[in-house]
Amino acid sequence: MPQHDEDIIAAIATGYTEAAIGIIRVSGKGCLELLEKIFTKKPPYKANRLYYGHITDKQGKVLDEVLVSIFKAPHSYTGEDSFEINCHGGLVVLNSVLERVMEAGARLAQPGEFTKRAFLNGKLDLSQAEAVAKVISAKSKRAVDVAQRQLQGNFSSKLDEIREQILYLMAENEVRIDHPEEDLSDVSTEEKIRTISDIQNKLKQILRAAEFGNHLFEGVILALVGKPNVGKSSLLNLITGSERAIVTDIPGTTRDVVKEQFNINGVPFSILDTAGIRKTNDTVEKIGVKRSLKAIDEADIVLAIFDGSNDLTQEDKKLIERLKSSAKPIIAILNKTDLGIKINKDNLPFEHLLELSCKSGKGLDKLEKTLSNIALGGVDDSQIVSLNASQKQSLKKAIQMCEQLKNDIDNDIDPALIGVDFMALTDYLDEVIGKITNEDMLDVMFKKFCIGK
Ligand SMILES: Nc1nc2c(c(=O)[nH]1)N(C=O)[C@@H](CNc1ccc(C(=O)N[C@@H](CCC(=O)O)C(=O)O)cc1)CN2
Ligand SMILES: Nc1nc2c(ncn2[C@@H]2O[C@H](COP(=O)(O)OP(=O)(O)OP(=O)(O)O)[C@@H](O)[C@H]2O)c(=O)[nH]1
Ligand SMILES: [Mg+2]
Predict the structure, then answer these.
(1) Which residues contact 395 (CB under 8 A, 6 or more apart)?
(2) Any idea which positions bind K(+) (predicted)?
(3) Residue of the nearest CA to atom 9 in ligand 1?
(4) What whole-number distance in Å separates Cα of residue 358 and Cα of residue 337?
């Protein structure tokens, strides 16, 4: 297996806090010779063994009593020779052992550099590397489960299957390039177009699942909007189970944006409570209103609150007009239903219309179900995938290229040109999985990892 970088890298791989044990990870060609210099236990070192001994400084003074595990290329996380020092988990101890490792010839690893090497050495593809980051940053068990499946290669094999389908069509096309005079093919034009449509649909589903993957891993932003006193802050408190926002019967209570986190079935949500939207001459409230309009822009889902126990007012109608032109999913909520329902629902042209009482909590379960459905779009967990922006971009280009190919084949253009488009299509898919990469993209990708990963 090729070793892409000659240096030996080292980092603390465990958390920067006092703990029972802390691990220093070291990787790169020649690292086992480095170990020999600083470890009281001398070689031979066998792969996948744990050795007891002491790390000493140049004068032979003990820096820590440790256990060292040995990995030999290519059978390690990075694919290189590597070892891990299990130290006592104090930051001072860990730092002195790390400094000793660097004194002996290693350099400090950059964030994600171990995983980058694993990728460059073919131990992981790019979608698996992305999954490693998500396994670590996931905020719920559900998100971890989804990331684990991707780490095991589920997504990679799905793309492989699609690639197989394309290769079959490419081979058929090659025959036509080589034998332009004869009609050797038993695959009809309709069948080819059907197969490409099928591929395109699969790619579209993956893209859609990746959008929802963002929701599961990064969270969903909700904005609460509505005229003063309808119960926006009450809803924030109800849904988060807190007393975070101040609730009074005085309209205009909330002036700045209040933000709070909660989760539904393992999907993280942030909810932004904003100032009630109305015409106002109060400077502070005006700024608040401006911010609430901005919150609508930032939100993934807008919760528009109305007082269901009264008729719609001019302010409500203005808000409805404003929201009608928004492309975002909007849930209209008729609050204060414990006081009876007087509002005319015909004037609320929203796909989701729910009744609620923040006072009794009635209707909350339905709201949570609706939020959960919109957040994950009904996509099954087994289909959800986490892709970064540039992977999604490549996927979009692949989807466009399918469109192009359908036209190519329908118009019976020169097979040599069709071949070029097929190549472009497989290249775009290779970018998603990381068979084709560029240095900038890898930089962006691995920078978000922690040190030592
Ligand atoms: N101490 C420690 N714990 C850890 C890791 C680690 O690197 N070190 N991991 C890392 O982040 C995760 C485990 N992932 C790993 C993945 C591959 C290999 C590895 O050595 N693979 C070899 C041998 C496989 C085998 O024996 O079957 C290989 O792929 O060839 C090690 C850990 C989580 N826990
Ligand atoms: N009866 C009843 N009263 C409610 C309900 N929800 C909220 N209220 C009351 O309505 C008043 C206003 O509630 P808030 O949550 O402060 O309203 P808001 O929309 O945040 O108001 P601003 O911050 O001023 O824009 C308070 O007196 C609440 O107790 C409800 O479901 N039923
Ligand atoms: Mg409020």
Answers:
(1) 203, 206, 207, 210, 387, 428, 432
(2) 229, 248, 250, 253
(3) 77
(4) 9
CATH T-level topology, domain 9-125: Gyrase A; domain 2 (3.30.1360)
Amino acid sitting at position 113? E
Quick check: CB of 76 below 6 Å from ligand 1? yes
Q: In the structure, how many helices (H) and strands (E) does the chain have?
A: 14, 12
Q: What ipTM was reported for this prediction? A: 0.84
**In the CATH hierarchy, which fold is given to the domain comprising 219-278+286-380?**
Rossmann fold (3.40.50)
Nearest CA to ligand 2 atom 10: 231
270-297 pLDDT, tens per residue?
A: 999 887 776 666 666 666 667 767 888 8
**271: β partners:** 222, 260
Are the C-beta atoms of 130 and 385 separated by less than 8 Å?
A: no
**In this predicted structure, what is the pLDDT of residue 1?**
41
123 annotated as ligand-binding: yes
Query: Which residues sit opposite 333 in a β-bridge?
Result: 305, 354
Token pair for 317: 């109608």
d(CA 124, CA 131): 10
Which pLDDT value is given to residue 176? Answer: 85
Q: How far apart are CA 13 and CA 16, in angstroms?
A: 9
Tell me if domain 139-214+388-434 and domain 219-278+286-380 are identical in fold.
no
Any ligand 2 atom below 6 A from CB of 232? yes
Q: Does ligand 1 lie within 6 Å of residue 75's CB atom? A: yes
> Which amino acid type is present at position 300?
D
Helices 126-137 and 439-447: crossing angle in degrees, nearest 10, is 20
Element (H, E) at 334: strand 330-335
CA gyration radius for the chain?
29
For 172, list phi and psi in degrees, rounded to 5: -60, -40
Domain borders along the chain are 9-125, 139-214+388-434, 219-278+286-380
Q: What are the φ/ψ torsions at residue 267 (nearest 5 degrees)?
A: -100, 120
The segments of the chain whose pLDDT lies below 50 read 1-4
- Rounded Cα–Cα distance for residues 328 and 247 (Å): 27
Give pTM, 2 decimals. 0.85
139-214+388-434: CATH number: 1.20.120.430
**Alpha helix stretches (DSSP H) within 219-335:** 232-240, 283-298, 314-324
Concatenated DSSP letters of 223-250: EEE-STTSSHHHHHHHHHTS--S---SS
Alpha helices in 39-125 (DSSP H): 91-103, 113-120
Q: Which of 346, 347, 447 is nearest to 388 (CA)?
A: 447
Torsion 411-414-419-424 (CA) sign: negative
Strand partners, 185: none
